[in-house]
Structure formats: C-alpha cells, structure tokens
Amino acid sequence: MFLLRCFKPKFYKKSKSTTSYMKIRLDIVRKKRTAMVRNYKTDIANFLKNEQDCESYRRAELLLEELRIISCYDLIERFCDCISENLPLMLKKRECPEECREAVSSLIYATAWVPDVPELKDLRAVFTKRFGNFTASSVNHELVEKTGSRRLPSRELKIQTLKDIANEFSINWDPTALKLMLLTETSALQIEGKMETGADGPKIEREKSIIDDQSEDESVLSESTWRGDLLSKGSFSSSSSSSSSPSSLRRESVRKKKKRKEILPYGIISPTYNDEKTQEEKEE
C-alpha cells in the first residue's frame, strides 16, 4: 500500500511536468512553422503579381505541408489539456478513464509521426507503464488522417489556396491560364504513357520474329544434316552392292553421275528402280 501511494504521486508529477514542457515545446515549433507560412504566402503573392503561376503552384504545396504540421500541433496541444484536466481522475483508477482514453492513445500514436516534440516519448513511457498498450481504434481519426496518410494535396486544393492568397493580398488573378497549362501537362503525360505501352507491342513482335528466324535456321541446319546422313548411307550401300567387273564399274559410274545430278541440287534420294535394273543385268 505504501509503495502504491509513492507510485501515484510520481506518475502525477511526471505526467504534469511532461505535459507542461510539451506545451512550451509546441509554442516554439509552432512559431517557426508560422513564420515559414508567412514567407511562403509572401513568395506566392509576388509570383502571382509577376504572372509566374507555375512557381506559385509549386510553393502552394509547400505551404499546405506547413499548415498540415501546424494542425497536428494544435491537436496535440488539445490532448495535453485534456490529460492535465483529468490527471486527478487518472490517479483514482488503474485503467485509463474513458474521458481521456482518446487523448492518451493519440499522444502515444503521435510519437512516431511528430519528431519535433521529443517529450512525446517520455509521456508514452509513463502511460504505457501505468495503463499498458492502447488499441489503434481509440486514436483520433483526424490525427491519423493528418499524419498517417500524408497524401499530396489535390490540384483543386492548391488552386483554391492560390485564390485565397490572391484575395488576401488584393491581387486580381485569373486561374484559367494555370488550369490550361496543367491540363496540357497531364494530357502530354498520358500520351507519353500510351506511347511507351504501345511501343512494347512492336518490340515483342520483333523478338518473336527473331526467335522464329532462329528456329527456322535451326530446322534448316538439322534438315541438311539429316539429308547429308541419308546421302552418305545411300552411297555407302550402293558401293558395297556393286560388282567388281569393269562393265559393272562403268555402269556404276554412270549411275552415280545420274544420281549426283538428281541429289545434289535438290537433296532428293534417287529412286530404287536403278538397283532393280542392275540386278536384272547381273542375272543376264
């Protein structure tokens, strides 16, 4: 019981001091971000006056990023105020009360996404030691959208930001030229993408034709070797079957000449009736 009483004031003091330091830190970093926002607005106004719509459009994205971070700071400060108000209630319960569950879980979640506030790590260690881990469902949805997704701002949001700055600095600015330029850029990118995807078709056809040519060459080579083997076998059998007499040698030489005329130009094997004639002459 004595140890429990000693732990409670320590938790109270640590939470109170950490939230106080965190609010001081948030004020410092917010001032820096706010100064950056003013500089970006001034630059955008100058670009709009000089009709440099492209540069003002690029700066609008940087401006929106700074505004996103500042909105995260505002949410964290609101959660710190909620914890400071409910610290006496948190001391009475061993589990995190429903009144500050969203604030505690959101601050623990923000530790990984807001590096400008190192006090968040100390506060996470204090809360997880006392209450354990928290589920992601209890985290504030607005904080998750501003930190977790980090999507690029849309074209309409950037143009609307430029309109607001033009109205703020009393600049007569027409966004029609900027919209036409952005449309032409997107259409050019789409055409280029279609050309790149369409270029793969002829490339594939060329590769297929090369493969077919190679296969045809291989088939021609294999066919020529096969025909050469048959020719060599035929000449060997004919020479072995012929007789050794002079008349038969003359007839064999004449037959070979005729056979060469029939075989070499076209690769056709001579018919078998020549062998039958030689056998009949031998019998005679």
The domain tally reads 2
Strand content: under 5%
Q: What is the rounded distance between the termini? A: 135 Å
The CATH architecture assignment of the largest domain turns out to be: Up-down Bundle
**Number of strand elements:** 0
Biggest sheet statistics: none
Radius of gyration based on Cα positions = 45 Å
Under CATH, the topology of the largest domain can be stated as Ferritin
- Output mean pLDDT: 76
Number of helices: 10
**CATH level 4 superfamily of the largest domain:** Vacuolar protein sorting-associated protein Ist1
Report the top-level CATH class of the largest domain: Mainly Alpha
Shape: flat
Assign the structural class, choosing from mainly alpha, mainly beta, alpha/beta, alpha+beta, or little secondary structure. mainly alpha
Order of helices and strands: HHHHHHHHHH
